[in-house]
Amino acid sequence: RIPWKHTMTNGVSFAAACLAAQATICRCNAFSPDGKSAFSPNWRRGGATTSTSLRVSELHIPGYRETKVPFILTDDDLVGDGSTGGAPTLTRIGEIAFTDSDYESQIPYESGHLLHKSRGPIFTGAECRAIVEEAEHVAAEMGWTTTRHGNYPTTDIPIVELPSTIKFLRLALVERIYPLLRKQFQPFLPDGTKLRVADGFVVKYDAEGGQTELKPHRDGSVLSFNVALNPANDFDGGGTWFDSLGDSVKIDQGEIISHA
Q1: What would the pLDDT profile of 110-134 be if each residue is shown by its tens digit?
Q2: How far apart are alpha carbons 114 and 132 in whole angstroms?
């Protein structure tokens, strides 16, 4: 796992939001042949060199068995409501075939890279605005949560509390995000078809009295990804800072950054 943090500097014209999610491996251990972590090179703690095996699945964190369920595509997600007349119809699933030209890769490790940034949006502007609007509407009723992540809390709304967003995301994961992650991290994944989101949330950053950053940390999942929901010109600063780069990586509305 590579240390990272979110930052926002100067002021913002209004709060910026991003969709963040952590993906795990379903019923599968992600080990490299030498028994070391498939994603993190050896790192020093207290002067000693250590290696950590990647054991992030529902077999090792039983709670994932429940938290992944709301993000799994169902038959109901694929049935149209017949609002245009006639009987309801099934939506055809169409996975996007990504190529290396669709994203930039950084932090090389063994035969692949640990960090990727899309060269264009994976969500449209309208899709991003719909997510923000639903999050703000729900937050107006239940409030933004600030204690769900104990050590590194974010001001967020769990996607499971957003009915329209989670229905949209279930299909987007299958058609867009999982195919992209499989392509990006193929050298390390024992079986990319077993990727499942274990936690997803809309995060709100606000330089005018709200949360402005997230301290450096390592996620507990196999992979993490963030999608920017606001246009980059809506605010100053921002980005996701990575210790291995010593710099922040910024994305525009609808673009995705993914990392191990």
Answers
A1: 999 999 999 999 999 999 999 999 9
A2: 28
Rounded distance between C-alpha atoms, residue 61 and residue 80, angstroms: 35
| Ordered strands of the 247-249 beta sheet | 213-217, 4-7, 240-242, 247-249
Residue type, 182: R
Distance CA 132, CA 23 (A): 22
Predicted TM-score of the model (pTM): 0.78
Is residue 245 within 8 A of residue 7, CB to CB? The reply is no
- Do 226 and 200 form a contact (C-beta atoms < 8 A)? no
Whole-angstrom distance, CA of residue 45 vs CA of residue 65: 31
Contacts of 233 (CB under 8 A, 6+ apart): none
Q: Does residue 31 contact residue 38 with C-beta atoms inside 8 Å?
A: yes
Residue length of the chain? 260
Q: Are strands 48-50 and 43-45 parallel, antiparallel or unpaired?
A: antiparallel
**Segment 59-86, tens digit of pLDDT:** 567 777 888 999 999 988 887 655 555 5
The letter for the amino acid at 231 is: P
The mean-pLDDT minimum among 1-15, 35-49, 76-90, 234-248 falls in: 35-49
Report which secondary-structure segment, H or E, holds 27.
none
Is the CB of residue 39 less than 8 Å from the CB of residue 260? Answer: yes
Give the single-character DSSP code of 4: E
User: Residue 158: which H helix or E strand, with range?
Assistant: strand 156-158
